[in-house]
Amino acid sequence: MSETANQNLTNEDMSLTPAAQTKIVELMSQVEGDEVKGVRVYVAGSGCSGPSFGMTFATKFEENDSVLEGESFTIVIDAEALVILKGVEIDFVDTGVGGASFVFNNLAPAESASGCGTCPSSSSQGGGCS
pTM of whole model > 0.85? Predict the structure, then answer.
């Protein structure tokens, strides 16, 4: 584990809309102390609908991390997640009462997971992978 990441990202690797940048700066300003180094973008799990994506505060950088430096924030992503998310645009959308979230745009289509195309119950039968 190192305090610095080994690769700087460009906006071609990953970009944030102005709304996403504003929200990240707002969230970072609510963190007390200097333990948080940035916001980590991650990929979790994979199933019939493909991987899910999320963000959390990063308290350290790992050797395989890359960073995207903004004016008042740092985005951190590991090499494996970057392969899946390369070229993604992160947006922040607020649709009103309780409807605010980060949205990942420009994602490559998810490849079918093992067995998902061969589930015995078809969508016409109300089924899916189980």
Answer: no
